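Slides due. Your pick:
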Amino acid sequence: MCRGSRLALVFDLGHHPHSDDFVEPERLKREMHVFPLRLVSCKDCGLLQIDYLVNPDILYKTNYVYESSVTATGRAHYADMARHSVERFRIQKNNLVIDIGSNVGVLLQGFKDAGMRVLGIDPADIPAKKAIAEGIPTIIDYFTKAVAEDIVAKHGTARIITGTNVFAHLHDIDSAVEGMKHILASDGVIVIEAPYALPLIEHLEYDTIYHQHVGYLSVKPMQAYFKRFGLELFDVMPQDIHGGTVRYYVGHVGAHPIISSVDEYIKKEEAFGLYDTERLKRFADEVKAQRIALIGMLQDLKRSGKRIVAISTPAKGNTLLNYCNIDGAYLEYATEKSALKVGKYTPGTLLKIEPDAKLLSDQPDYALILAWNFAKEIMANNEEYKKRGGKFIIPIPKPRII
């Protein structure tokens, strides 16, 4: 963000495949590309980030199957975000709302239901085409200043620009922010949501580190970054989703009153030690201990003759599986709700992905929940499995059996 080059290594996770590159059966015998995955801290602005960027065409234009609408929790969250944004900023009907990284359009659907004109931008063909089929206009492209200029010429400026779980994915982030500023109406609001770096460190959420996530956002570097572009971070709000998320509100300088939450968050980050080398080193040591504990738990269960599978296969789960080397020696298969993943194999560890229904037809002893941030919903959806004696393993922050 600050273009500084003084990066300090925080944690080296080794070499990992692209975490959303689920493998079709015909590709099983082919070599899989792996890339360095290292978390570093900028000594100048404090941003946590990775130091090796994979070509975005590999990440988003090849076999990208993530859908933001899979969980009921996610759908409810996005519907509430749209409602809250319209009410808080008193957005009148027929104003333009733009979502960057719009995926299948679940957030924009909430704005559309409120009477807004909506437009999505996403480079991933599969989810973008789903959005279009559902009546959400979507530009299939990366968001840049040039794309923004074309949008303004055709659609005018936007009262709201959203970016959920995408701002930290952007490679050419400067061009994207210049584009946001160009599109944003004089009294408009940029609303950004992203997993928060502080709980990542505090709760050992290392599995959220993967190649799509270029940066791990916190308030102090975000405030400085937007200031560089003549924009102003004026409010920060916590969100429960994804293991701890922050919603950032940004506008033109002076367009909105600055809320005390911004300074309060920065003070909290500094007091916690988010920008302190020794605190970050402790995080790395704690993650290594967590890996040992999780592997030890699985080994003990296997030695006692228990059968274990994985339930859910998010990108974060593949970071955990590959970092811990948890493959078919521990897990018989994985199950998944998304039809786009069923029948494929997890990248790196090559666990076959079965439909969730197999939990009941097969009744393994334990199910390792990889999408632990949706553990409550997953366990509720599979209550019958538990009634029949099945148990769940939640791996983060410390492995525990439920």
The radius of gyration is 21 Å. The chain has a mean pLDDT of 94. The longest strand covers residues 184-195.
